[in-house]
Write a structure and sequence with these properties.
- Residues 2-12 and 16-39 have low confidence and may be disordered.
- The protein is globular, with a radius of gyration of 21 Å.
- It has a two-stranded antiparallel ribbon with strand order 1-2.
- A hairpin with a 2-residue loop joins strand 1 (30-31) and strand 2 (34-35).
- It has two domains: 1-31; 36-156, no CATH class.
- By secondary structure, it is mostly helical.
- The chain is built from eight helices and two strands, in the order H-E-E-H-H-H-H-H-H-H.
């Protein structure tokens, strides 16, 4: 049988955990009266992609639309999709910790600092690598996917696409 003192010791950590969970959830969901980026990660990812490789957006490659394709495609694993979404949440948690603002609310120099900080973490390095990979996929994707209509990547490296070209999108 558990003594009253042991029961109090068990209940207090639970209460503390619940309080911290509720506070963290509220902070994550409502930062400065705005819905937090973890609910709609595309805006945050678009900004991250532009911060990491602005050339793509400058050339008209819609990298955010490509990520949206990835996040909604049935052949991309649930784990990969969750890693992208969780990375947005973790990125925003770091921005909130350092600046008390979400990533999209930060100035360019502040966002650069946050990316530098998370790149020192294993998850952050892997997440940035994954986002950069998707940027490159968008840059060199066939125009059938609708994110690289001007074939910017192919022109950039002076590449001629092979034939036959895809007749339908596979993603």
């Amino acid at each position: 049988m558990i003594s009253k003192e042991e029961n109090i010791l068990l209940i207090n950590p639970r209460r503390l955990f619940l309080k911290q969970s509720i506070l963290t959830t509220a902070l994550l969901l409502f930062s400065s009266n705005r819905v937090f980026g973890a609910l709609v990660p595309i805006k945050t990812i678009d900004l991250v992609q532009n911060d990491l490789f602005p050339f793509a957006n400058q050339q008209g490659v819609d990298t955010a639309a490509y990520i949206n394709i990835i996040l909604n495609h049935t052949h991309v694993s649930y784990e990969d999709k969750m890693f992208i979404r969780n990375g947005v949440q973790w990125l925003n948690e770091e921005a909130l910790r350092v600046y008390t603002k979400t990533y999209v609310q930060l100035q360019a120099e502040q966002r650069e600092r946050i990316l530098s900080i998370i790149s020192q973490e294993n998850w952050g390095e892997l997440w940035i690598e994954r986002i950069l990979s998707y940027i490159m996929e968008a840059m060199f994707s066939d125009k059938i996917y609708g994110v690289n209509a001007a074939e910017t990547g192919q022109k950039w490296i002076e590449h001629s696409n092979g034939l036959p070209r895809p007749s339908k999108a596979f993603l």
